[in-house]
Amino acid sequence: MFLLEYKIETNECTMKNFLSFLLILLLVNLSVAQTKALDSLMITGEFAKLIEMADASIESQSKKEAFLVAKAYIGLGNAKKASEVYQQNLEDGDDLRHFYSYGKVLLQQNQAKLADSIFSYLHEKNPNNAEFLYRSALAKQKLDSEDFKKTLYQAYDLQQNHLLVAYELAKEELKQKNYAIANRIATQALWNNPENTSLLSIKGQALYARGKWEECVSTFNQLKKVSDVPLFVELRLAKAHVKLGNYPDALKHYENCIAKDPTDFQILEDAAEVATFCEETKKAQIYISQAFALKDVSRSRQYYIFGTVFLQKEDFERAIGLFTQCIEEDANHEKATYALANAKDRFYADQQKILEAYELYLQNFPDGNYADLANYRVKELRKEIFLAGERLKEKRK
Description:
Largest sheet: none
Keywords: TPR repeat
InterPro entries: TPR-like_helical_dom_sf, TPR_rpt
Number of helices: 21
Order of helices and strands: HHHHHHHHHHHHHHHHHHHHH
Shape: elongated
Low-confidence stretches: 18-31
Protein name: Tetratricopeptide repeat-containing protein
Strand content: under 5%
Helix content: over 70%
Mean pLDDT: 88
């Protein structure tokens, strides 16, 4: 009897264990099936459906499923909710990729201090990963930390072909006016991707700042081939061509600038000046008129600018009249006073009149920007007038 009871109890126990095993197996299979379903939704970008499905079984939700939910929130652009999921589930020892995602979410939320601690933790775990150092540098930048640049260089030393690192570093060197270094870093990075617009822009700006006009033009033209460029690039191209004496090319770029911003009176004035060099007098007058319409320009400045147009056109008589009017409006207008002397020098045959014009300039502006040129011309004229007088005396004898 005892043996029979023992057998019955043993069978019941075995059956219970078997049923428990089947239940566990069923739950595992259901969990695996759900995780697979969530994976499928993530791959196809069905982020809202993924979150809805995961929330329906939140009590039995695995950590892997929780991290899928966090990624879904990131996909929906909800960094706050993603951050909350990571905070609730992340533990030391979890896969580093989840900490990495969490750190990036924190950066998006401008939680720079916490983000920096996450990326510092990742760097400790994997010191050879340049990406972790790069993200740590971005956090330090938001914190105005002195270690920002140092950390960037650490990332750069680990992986020089990390273009985001190279760009941030070149940009920082450009900001600090270390133009040669900025150019070198951008140039090296462009070997890996010659059409990277950000790096081409940095390189072009560095070359412009160093006065490397031909290289600057070449770099910015490269940039224009692969992308629409902002106003400042067209403007630098225009000014670089002016420095090279390529006035027709400069005018084209100024016209591009005007098309991008027809309200900048300074660009219009510069375009007018370049147009005069190209003997495009009509364009020059149009641009100057447009500039005046946009700014409350003094009459003296109007007279001066129109005078320079006619001086470039070699219409010296009208230029002289306009410079004279400019000086009548503003006796302290140094440029107009020198320009008047220069116009008379090129128009009058009477050397005494020319001499008086240069002497007027030196009288009013003895230490002016054009004093050396004026003094040199005065000496020449006095010598020529003296020699002409001596020749006249010889003839009368």
